[in-house]
Amino acid sequence: MSDTPDIITKMIKQIFILLLSSLLFISCSQSKMLTRSLQKSKAPISYLHDSEIIEFDKTKTIALGSFNNQIIDSITNVTVTRRIIIPLLVFNYFDRKYDISLGQSNLDQNYTDFFKNSFITESHRSGKYSLVDSNTSDYILDIKIDSCYTTSKYQMTSSSLYLVSHVITTIKEKGFPSESKLVLSVSLKSNNKIVFEKDYIFDKIQALSNSRSKQTNALRAFFITNMVESLSLNTKECIELIIDDINKEIN
Amino acid sequence: MKLIQLILCLVLLNSCSHSKYILKTEQELSRINWETTKFNYIPILKSDIDKSIILGMTNVYLEQRQLFKLKKYLKSNSSNSNDFFLAKTIYYMYKTDYTEAQKTLLHINDEKYLQIKQLLSVDLNHEISKENDTHNYQQTLNEYQYLFDANPSNTVLKNILLTRVRYTRYNY
Predict the structure, then answer these.
(1) Which of A68, A115, B10, B22 has the highest count of CB atoms within 10 angstroms of its CB?
(2) Contact across the interface for A48 and B137, Cβ inside 8 Å
């Protein structure tokens, strides 16, 4: 008879461990589903060039020199930063927060090509120089992107209430504003001499207007688009400033 | 019968309040917070509204969100004028009947409405291609870019186009 409390305690322990491990398993599988879902979304990165078109002062010529490739990760990474699980047998609560890092897979075009093409387009618009292919140009421009990150946070909370034969489950998801950081160095050479050299750091936080949505898939697509928009507009500002600096330097 | 009318009115009011395109005079547009707005504005000159009864009435009905009354008004004031076709195009856009709006837009040939015609044409192409699942972001962007480059000093249009590009990006 004295063994009975021991057996009950052991059983409760076993049930608790089983419950906790199953909840952990559910939590992990939901994280994997989120990762897959976010990686699936694609958003366009091109932007509207709204700078003033300069048609004069284009006597100097610049050729694009080196340009590094593979700047951003190939796929979007999802890392769990916080996981709260409250298992109370009849009521379970999960709260997970993720760090999201944007990858190439979510962009509708290769980032390096996009940067290069946007730079060429913007140079034709607002550059006080002509961009040429030949090696006989007045200047050679080297652009080295040291790092390019677009990060954000995403939160998933779910609660389940077990009522005899019914389960009431509520799932809420929330996206946070995204931050794009671009670190690059630019050098302009004339006759193999550096005439202009500068390191740039661009930071852009893009507000997320629709941070909560009843439709999970719509929110996730919206969230990824917000990250891509952040990167797109940060690149726009970066290119415009570089061209502005070059204009000042060569004229 | 009254109940049916009430339901119909509610449905119409609902469809009107959810219109993605909003008619505004350039004066009103100068007070818009472009950073936060979610709407695609259709710009119109205050002088055009003042000079044209049909555009003035259209503006009043749309402000009051009375699409049903606007429909009746346009039906009883049908004409071949550019103002009428512009009013009707905008009415169809509020109704989200983009195909009819596109057909009506083609009848506008007055030079003074050239810019608004070009803008609405790109909008409608985008909306219709979205409905047909053939939308192409780059193509729409190029068309807005062309419109911007044709009117580089128009700051209101610049803000309208930046908002349009944002809308297109999120509805890709």
Answers:
(1) A115
(2) no
**Tell me, what's the ipTM?**
0.84
Six-digit token string for A136? 């006989």
pLDDT at residue A165, rounded to an integer: 77
Q: Is B137 on the interface with A (CB under 8 A)?
A: yes
Which chain B residues are Cβ-neighbours of A50 within 8 angstroms? 148, 158, 161-162
pLDDT profile of chain B (172 residues), mean per 10:
57 57 90 86 92 94 93 94 96 95 96 94 95 92 96 92 94 79
pLDDT band of residue A8 (cuts 50, 70, 90) is confident
A50/B169 touch (CB, cutoff 8 Å), yes or no: no
Sort residue A57 into left (φ over 0), alpha (ψ -120 to 50) or beta.
left
Nearest by CB to residue B138, choosing from A46, A52, A225, is A46
CA distance B22 to A105: 35
CA distance A193 to A173: 54
Q: Please report, rounded to a whole number, the percentage of residues in chain A having pLDDT higher than 70.
A: 90
Burial-class residue B133 by CB neighbours within 10 Å (0-12, 13-18, 19+).
Answer: exposed
